[in-house]
Amino acid sequence: LKEAGVKRIAFSPQDTYLVTWRSRTQEDDKTGGNVAVFISASGETLRRFSQKSVDRWPTLKWSQNEKYSIQMVTNQLRLFTDKDPTRFVAKIDQKKVSNFEISSTGSYVAAASPEVNSTPGAIGIFTLPDFKKNCGK
Predict the structure, then answer these.
(1) Strands 99-102 and 90-93: what pairing?
(2) How many other β-carbons are positioned within 10 Å of the β-carbon of residue 56?
(3) Torsion angle of the four alpha carbons 22, 28, 33, 34, in this order, in degrees rounded to the nearest 10
(4) HEC profile of 5-28
(5) Sign (positive or negative) of CA dihedral 124, 103, 74, 134
(6) Closest by Cα among 92, 96, 93, 91 to 121
(7) CA dist 84 → 46, 54, 88, 92, 126 (Å)
(8) 13-50 pLDDT, tens digit each
(9) Is the pLDDT of residue 136 over 60?
(10) Angle CA(88)–CA(44)–CA(40) in degrees, nearest 5?
(11) Torsions phi, psi of 93, nearest 5?
């Protein structure tokens, strides 16, 4: 793969995909972003998107069977499926979401928002693939 300036990498659980992150450049407007998702076997670029900082790495996580992937963006989680990993099919809106995890069975996703001043933190647990709230505040 030729991807200049890469500072972070992550494989999907089955090694089907490789995600890279590099510092943002002016080229990103032309290429589609500083985060790239590659198909590991071929090196083909599957998609690109922008991510300002690396403190939320990896910003894209997969279920163990890679049927679902979830991307964290500002105040939102976006669900993608293996049928079309380039367009999200569902989303969760959660203010200040700062972290998330997909359960090992791929049945749930937990989204966490930190405590801010006097506002308590929140953890929501949602079912996959419909993103319906299972429990949490």
Answers:
(1) unpaired
(2) 16
(3) 0
(4) CEEEEEECCCCCEEEEEECCCCCH
(5) negative
(6) 96
(7) 10, 25, 8, 18, 21
(8) 999 999 999 988 888 878 889 999 999 999 999 999 98
(9) no
(10) 90
(11) -95, 120
pTM recorded for the entire structure: 0.85
CB distance 18 to 38 below 8 Å = yes
* Cα–Cα dist 60/16, whole Å: 14
Q: Is the peptide bond before 58 cis (omega within 30 degrees of 0)?
A: yes
Give the tens place of pLDDT for each residue, 72-128.
988 999 999 988 888 999 999 988 999 999 999 989 999 999 998 888 888 999 999
pLDDT of 134: 79
Kind and range of the H or E run holding 38: strand 35-39
Higher-pLDDT residue of 128, 53 = 128
Which has the closest alpha carbon to 9: 54, 41, 53?
A: 54
SS3 136: strand
pLDDT for 47 equals 92
pLDDT for the residue numbered 110:
94
